[in-house]
Design goal:
CATH superfamily: Glutaredoxin
Number of helices: 6
Largest sheet: 5 strands, mixed
Helix content: 40-55%
């Protein structure tokens, strides 16, 4: 309410606030994570044509988007909690690879309500997507609030985690058996 005391102070405060908002960026998350950053060719190589047992949760993001900046620590925490050899987390920058975003119906415009988009891939195919896109005469985007709990529930991460954990355990047991069997033969 200092603007009632002196209008000059209010104008100075407004200018200083605008300058700091323009030139001082919001800090990026730098904590622990198991997130891979994909390019177009690594996306095709790893996600589409890679190991069919591996599930991928891919975040289609834009670095300039405030919603993507808010999602970053949540996605990193999810990757640290749920990341396994057969359950991987990755991000794809849609500003660098707009053709790949269009291939998966992610709108890359600055007014898009689809940024960020999380897609779960299994066997190289899309399994679940948030926010969802309702197809009809006019495409509309379902609202989705990107919280830790909502993402875990929407993508059934607990169930997939247990499934991938069993798969990891069985593959590591078979790998140990192969090594032991190989040593006995020599």
């Amino acid at each position: 309410m200092f603007w009632k005391q002196n209008v000059v102070y209010a104008i100075i405060f407004g200018l200083v606030w605008l300058l700091q908002a323009c030139f001082l960026q919001q800090p990026y998350y730098q904590g622990p994570d198991q997130v891979l950053y994909l390019r177009d060719f690594t996306f095709e190589q790893e996600v589409l044509h890679g190991d069919t047992r591996t599930m991928w949760l891919i975040a289609f993001y834009a670095a300039w988007s405030p919603a993507c900046i808010k999602l970053q620590p949540i996605f990193a925490e999810l990757s640290a909690d749920f990341g396994l050899p057969f359950l991987k987390f990755a991000k794809l920058d849609i500003t660098r690879y707009p053709d790949l975003a269009k291939k998966y119906d992610v709108d890359v415009s600055s007014m898009s309500k689809q940024i960020p988009t999380l897609i779960l891939f299994r066997h190289g195919r899309e399994l679940v997507r948030r926010p969802g896109v309702l197809c009809g005469s006019k495409k509309s985007v379902q609202k989705f609030f990107f919280t830790y709990e909502n993402i875990v529930a929407a993508f059934s991460l607990n169930e997939f985690y247990m499934e991938c954990k069993k798969l990891s355990a069985s593959s590591s047991r078979s790998g140990v058996e192969e090594m032991v069997g190989g040593k006995k033969d020599q």
